[in-house]
Amino acid sequence: MIPEKVLIVRTDRLGDVILSTPVTTAFKQTFPGVKISMLANSRWMPLLQTHEDIDELISDNQENSTKLKPVVQLAGEIRSRAFDVAVVLHPTFRLALVLYIASVPVRLGSGYRWYSFLFNRRHFEHRKFSQKHELEYNLSLVETLGVRLDQIRFRFHLPEKLNRLTESFIQKQKPVIVIHPGSGKSARNWRPQCYGHLAKICMERLGATVLITGTRDEHGLVKIVQNICGHRAISLCGRLTILQLAALLQQADLLITNSTGPLHLATALGTPVIGLYAPLPACHPQRWGPYGQGENVIMARQACHRCIKSKSIYCSCMDEITVQHVFEKVCHILNSKKISIQTSLDSGI
Question: Which residues of the chain register pLDDT less than 50?
Answer without folding.
Answer: 346-347
